[in-house]
Every structure is written in structure tokens, then in C-alpha cells.
From TrEMBL:
Entry protein name: Uncharacterized protein
DNA-binding span(s): 15-74
Entry-linked InterPro entries: HD (IPR001356), HD-Zip_IV (IPR042160), HD-Zip_IV_C (IPR057993), Homeobox_CS (IPR017970), Homeodomain-like_sf (IPR009057), START-like_dom_sf (IPR023393), START_lipid-bd_dom (IPR002913)
Domain spans labelled Homeobox: 13-73
Any Pfam family matching the protein: PDF2_C
Length: 700
């Protein structure tokens, strides 16, 4: 209360009588007296009342109010000091906890010993003395029994087996190859690029690059727009087949020098409608990061090496970039394909865009000798804007391939038939991903109950959940293929493919820190891909293949639709009767004409609640496992984005890849041991056996 405020004093009849505010002189005199004597006696109060023209009661009330005000100010100041001191102590406590949690031994990389090493040494000395006495006693008894003293036993050499060297002679284990190389630890593969890129293009090289890109653009437009005799429809499945002789005549193929001997040519063309406008598509195609996000199941790495031309102001037309990409099939069995290429964009009509790619050679890259040598001939697409927000995309893929090593028989038909890297796969994936982006703007998902709490995400929560699931799928795809950044080692396993294992360090945000063991194998099943996908997607059949569920059923507690196909969805699964009430399973199922993916990862309930509230999911740790399902390519019928009536292809069988990721240790210096290898080998083998048994094909 301000010392100069008006005061209400009751009169003799109980009514309140209002006095005017004290004058500045009165307040000054009262403050001066308060500094000298905060508790004036009656004599002092009367003297002040005479000097200031105030009633003694007014003087008394003023001093009471002033003392209360001073006490409140002092308490507030004390509270601020205590709060600051408390915050300081809390921060120091957190820092000390983190330091204790992260402390490691500098010699072995492990946690420091809890006991004093002095006492450990003394205990060992005492134990050795007891053992020596026991040895002397046994030796004395033995000498009496033998009638002669026994010779002193030679010191036993300790057996030292490196945790990474399990191929020591004389050591073997069923299911483990004797030539196993477990020195697999490598850094993150995202920064590993096999091409020796120059620091920048010289001014002399740029005109040549522009000329190459312009020629590639002209060729792509002609190849896309020309039908017979350049392209002929296949009689079996209606796919477009490139007539190489006609192509050579049209584009003077005979004058070209093939880069490799015994080169195999792959060419394909297809068209489809996608739910995205042309400008957005062009922007994503010209940005290497967005390009990788758009095709996570195909592009394992993508990088912009240099922007040679930025294009017209406010438009991508005329943009020319030098890019690198690594393409994959989602199995460690199939080698990746690397391309360093020019990508050129041009708006050829008001509503039509063209994007053209052509490979670029650098001196010295022929010394790298990868397992698959790939060169992209002029390829690309025409994107036509449609009036309803859709775009019609016509895609052409044309490349020369020389396989240094033979393709595994399991995937040979798929690769040789052009299905693995053809235009149909690109367009099928593009259609599905565009539908996924469109679903971001659809209303939220219905509320479900988890542990007595209603799970009702907001629109922002739905978008956060979809971003988390997309990161999960991208991480899975990046770690299941035969990327140059992975060093896969084969264990003997379920078939001639074997179980492939590799290690990598996780240091990125959103992943558990430490050393992760990845393991995968691929099998062939004489069952349609559609049936296998439904089997993995259905939570009611999960106990038939999920070894880690211990037979506990799961219940879907949240469902987000990702596209027009009912199989494209994100689910939150809760285990029933598992005792893990705080853990859920995040699962995304993706399917299109080129194949299917089912990816899942355990996520704790507090993290899910944060995501559902719309917070940034980038720091939610996930370690995904899952399955990839591909048509085996042994029957050509039904494959193709534009002509197939069967969305999963018409092949007689399917190629299934089973992949797990396990956090082996939270220490970055941890090394692989036999126990981890056996655990993941048994996990893969048991899962494959249960899948075959559930699908009634145990003898395959």
C-alpha cells in the first residue's frame, strides 16, 4: 500500500470517514521519522501529529502500513534470492548427473570401476595365496600317491580372443561362417560419396556442361513424345519397349562410344497422374534433399554437387545442377547404382515442364571399380499441369549397366526385367508419396483411449506423427540396402543368401546414441506380394511372426490414412497383457505397384503424447525394423503404373527382406561380440521360420 494513499477511519457511529491523500511534505517527514524509528511511541506520535497537522490515529495507521509494506518488500527480495540459488543448485545437480552418466574409462572405454583398485588388488593377492596353498596341498597328496614328486605345472597362458576377431583357428559355431569378418564398425554413411568430385567446375567446363544438358533435354522431349516405331507395346503386359535400332538411327547411337564393354541397356517409359501441382514437383526434383525425401525407398543418398545455373528469377526454368545419387533395392543382396549427372529443368510451354538427366564422367572415377558400373543416358520426365491440381507425369529411364559381379539368382529376374530401377517403379512411388503429402491437410484422426487417457491429436499432432513415421521409414530404408556406406558380412543362415550383418554408430538427433547392429536376409516365397503385405499389416496376425512380442496380441489405438490404397497407413499399436503399458509400437505400411514396406519401432508413451500435441518430433528416438516385399519378376503380367489391374503386380512369387536394428551398446567404443551375433542370427532365423509356417510354405 502506498504511504500516501487515502485512509478510511471509522467514526464514532461506525461510518467510514475518508481523508485526503497526505501531502508530499507530510510523507517526507513521516519517511524521515520511519528511517530513524520504525516503532514510535505515543509521545513521538503526538509530536508528529502536532507538527504535521494529523490525528495521532492517522500517524499510528501510517506507521503500521509502512512496516507491513517494508516486510513484504523484504520477503519478495529474499524469495528472489532463494529462487536464484535453488535454480543454480538444480543446474549443478543436472550437470553432475550427466557427468556421472557419461563418464568412461580412458583405457577401455567402459564405465569406471565402482570399487577402489587398491582393495581389488589386495583381494586378488589373498585369493592367489589361498589357491597356492590349495595347490601345494594337492601336490603333496599326489606325490604320496605317485611315489614321486610331481613337476611344477607351467604357467597357464590366458586365452585372448578379440571381440571383433571371431575367426580364430579352431573356433567354430553352428550357423556362423568360419571366415566371418566382424570388423564392421563404420561411421554414418550419409557423408560417404564414392565419386571424386572436383572442388568446383572450371569456367572452361561449364559451357560443355550446358551443351550436354541442352542436348539431353532435346533428346528426352523427343523420346517422351514419340511412340512407334521408337516404342512398341509389349504383348504380355502392355509396357513400352524401346527399339534400340530405331533409337540408334534417331540419335546417331553408332557415333557414341559405350563406356564399358558388355554393357546392358535398360530403358522404360510410363505415365501417371499424381496429386501435386507441376511447380511443386519441379521444385522437389531440383532440390537434392527434397528429391531424397520424395523417394526414400529408391534413393539412398542424394547430394547437390554444384549449382551451375539458378534459372530465371522466381522460377526453376533454366536451372542446371550437378547432382549425385545412389539408387537401391531394399535388400543388402542387390548392389546399388551410383550416378553423377546433370539435371536440367526447362518450362517448354505455359503448363508443361521438362526435367532431363544425363551422366557426367570425371577423370579418375574409373579407378573406383564399384560392383555395379552405371551410366545414365538422357532420361527424365515431362510434367503437365492439370486443371484440378493434379499433374500428368511421363517418365523415361534409360541407362547402361555393367555388373562387375553377377546378380544373386533371387533377384536376377527383377533386375534383368528392368523392374527394379525402371520408370514404373519411379512413378508408382511418386504417386504414393504425393498422396501422402496430400493427406497432411486432411482432418485429424479419431480419439482412442490409452491407459485411461484419451488420445485425440490435433491437426498439428497428426502432422507431427506423420513426420515421425516418415523419418522412421527413411531411416529403415537407409540401413537395409547395400549402400556404399555399409560393410555387410554374411553369416550362414536360412538360405544361400545368409544373414547379413553390419555395425554403425548413431550420433544423429532422433536416434539412440551408441553402436547399432543391423541384420537382414532375403527369401523367396511362392505367395503373392499382396497376401504377404496383408499378413504383416494385420495386427491380428502379428503374434504369428513377431518373435519379440512373446505371444502377446496387440491392439490398434490410432490410425492415420496415408493414401487412396487402404494399406497405406500409420498405426499406433498397444500390446495387451504385456506389462509394458508405457510402450507403444509406431508402424507405417506403404504399398504401391512396385512393392511394399512395413516398418515399425517401439516408442514410449510420453514421447507419443509430445508428438500428438504437435511438438517437433525430430528428437524422439526411434530404431526401426521391418519388412520389404517385392514381386519376384518371374512373370511380367500386371506390372506397371499405367496398365496394371493388380496393384501389387502379377508375379507368381515374392521377394521378402526381413531386417532388424538392435542397439548393441550405448558406448560409442563398443565392439561386436559373439553373443550379439548369435542373438540376431537366431532372431532372423526364428522370424523367417514363423513366417513360412504361418503362410503354409515351410519347405521353401
Amino acid at each position: 500500500m502506498d504511504s500516501g494513499d487515502e485512509q478510511d477511519v471509522p467514526d464514532s457511529q461506525g461510518r467510514k470517514k475518508r481523508y485526503h491523500r497526505h501531502t508530499p511534505r507530510q510523507i517526507q517527514e513521516l519517511e524521515s521519522m520511519f528511517k530513524v524509528c520504525p516503532h514510535p511511541d505515543e509521545k513521538q506520535r503526538k509530536q508528529l501529529s502536532r507538527d504535521l497537522g494529523l490525528e495521532p490515529r492517522q500517524i499510528k495507521f501510517w506507521f503500521q502500513n509502512r512496516r507491513t509494506q517494508m516486510k513484504a518488500q523484504q520477503e519478495r527480495a529474499d524469495n528472489c534470492l532463494l529462487r536464484a540459488e535453488n535454480d543454480k543448485i538444480r543446474c549443478e545437480n543436472i550437470a553432475m548427473r550427466e557427468a556421472l552418466r557419461n563418464v568412461i574409462c580412458p583405457s577401455c572405454g567402459g564405465p569406471p570401476p565402482d570399487d577402489d583398485p587398491y582393495f581389488d588388488e589386495q583381494n586378488l593377492r589373498m585369493e592367489n595365496a589361498k589357491l597356492k596353498e590349495e595347490l601345494d596341498r594337492v601336490s603333496s597328496l599326489a606325490s604320496k600317491y605317485l611315489g614321486r614328486p610331481i613337476t611344477q605345472l607351467p604357467p597357464v597362458q590366458p586365452m585372448s580372443i578379440s571381440s571383433l576377431d571371431l575367426s580364430v583357428g579352431g573356433y567354430s559355431h553352428p550357423g556362423i561362417s568360419p571366415s566371418l569378418d566382424l570388423d564392421l564398425l563404420c561411421q554414418s554413411s550419409s557423408s560417404a560419396f564414392p565419386y571424386p568430385f572436383p572442388a568446383s567446375m572450371s569456367e572452361l567446363d561449364k559451357p560443355l556442361m550446358v551443351e550436354m544438358a541442352t542436348g539431353a533435354m532435346e533428346e528426352v522431349i523427343r523420346v517422351v513424345q514419340t511412340d512407334e516405331p521408337l516404342w512398341v507395346k509389349s504383348g504380355s503386359d502392355g509396357r513400352d519397349i524401346l527399339q534400340l535400332e530405331t533409337y540408334d538411327r534417331m540419335f546417331q547411337r553408332s557415333a557414341r562410344q559405350l563406356r564399358f564393354s558388355d554393357t546392358r541397356v535398360e530403358a522404360s517409359r510410363d505415365s501417371a497422374l499424381v496429386v501435386m501441382n507441376a511447380v511443386t514437383l519441379v521444385d522437389m526434383f531440383m532440390d537434392a534433399s527434397k528429391w531424397g525425401e520424395l523417394f526414400p525407398t529408391i534413393v539412398s543418398k542424394a547430394r547437390t554437387v554444384e549449382v551451375l545455373a539458378a534459372g530465371m528469377a522466381g522460377s526453376r526454368s533454366g536451372s542446371l545442377v550437378l547432382m549425385y545419387e545412389e539408387l537401391q533395392v531394399l535388400s543388402p543382396v542387390v548392389p546399388t547404382r551410383d550416378f553423377c549427372f546433370l539435371r536440367y529443368c526447362q518450362q517448354i510451354e505455359p503448363s508443361v515442364w521438362a526435367v532431363a538427366d544425363v551422366s557426367v564422367d570425371f577423370p579418375g572415377d574409373n579407378q573406383l571399380a564399384p560392383s555395379s558400373r552405371s551410366r545414365r543416358l538422357p532420361s527424365g520426365c515431362l510434367i503437365e499441369e492439370m486443371p484440378n491440381g493434379y499433374s500428368k507425369v511421363t517418365w523415361v529411364e534409360h541407362m547402361e549397366i555393367e555388373e562387375k559381379n553377377p546378380i544373386h539368382a533371387l533377384f536376377r529376374d527383377l533386375i534383368d526385367g528392368g523392374m527394379a530401377f525402371g520408370a514404373q517403379r519411379w512413378l508408382a512411388t511418386l504417386q504414393r508419396m504425393c498422396e501422402r503429402f496430400a493427406c497432411l491437410n486432411v482432418a485429424g484422426i479419431p480419439a482412442r483411449d490409452i491407459g485411461g487417457k484419451e488420445l485425440a491429436p490435433s491437426p498439428d499432432g497428426k502432422r507431427s506423427m506423420m513426420k515421425l513415421a516418415q523419418r522412421m521409414v527413411t531411416n529403415f530404408c537407409a540401413n537395409v540396402g547395400a549402400s556404399n556406406g555399409h560393410k555387410w558380412t554374411t553369416l550362414s543362415g536360412v538360405n544361400d543368401v545368409g544373414v547379413r550383418v553390419t555395425l554403425h554408430k548413431n550420433t544423429d538427433a532422433g536416434q539412440p546414441n551408441g553402436v547399432v547392429l543391423s541384420a537382414a536376409t532375403s527369401i523367396w516365397l511362392p505367395i503373392s506380394a499382396e497376401r504377404i503385405f496383408s499378413f504383416f499389416k494385420d495386427e491380428r496376425t502379428r503374434t504369428q511372426w513377431d518373435v519379440l512380442s512373446n505371444g502377446n496380441t496387440v491392439q490398434e489405438v490410432a490410425h492415420i490414412t496415408n493414401g487412396s490404397h487402404p494399406g497405406n497407413c500409420i498405426s499406433l499399436l498397444r500390446g495387451l497383457n504385456s506389462g509394458q503399458n508405457t510402450m507403444l509400437i509406431l508402424q507405417e505400411c506403404c504399398t504401391d505397384a512396385s512393392g511394399s514396406v512395413v516398418v515399425y519401432s517401439p516408442v514410449d508413451l510420453p514421447a507419443i503424447n509430445i508428438v500428438m500435441s504437435g511438438e517437433d518430433p525430430s528428437y524422439v528416438p526411434i530404431l526401426p525394423s521391418g519388412f520389404t516385399i517385392l514381386p519376384d519378376g518371374r512373370s511380367a503380367g500386371g506390372y506397371g503404373a499405367s496398365s496394371s489391374s493388380n496393384p501389387m503386380g502379377g508375379s507368381a512369387g515374392s521377394l521378402v527382406t526381413v531386417a532388424f536394428q538392435i542397439l548393441m551398446s550405448s558406448l560409442p567404443s563398443a565392439k561386436l561380440n559373439l553373443e550379439s551375433v548369435m542373438t540376431v542370427n537366431n532372431l532372423i532365423g526364428t522370424t523367417v521360420q514363423q513366417i513360412k509356417a504361418a503362410l503354409s510354405c515351410p519347405d521353401v
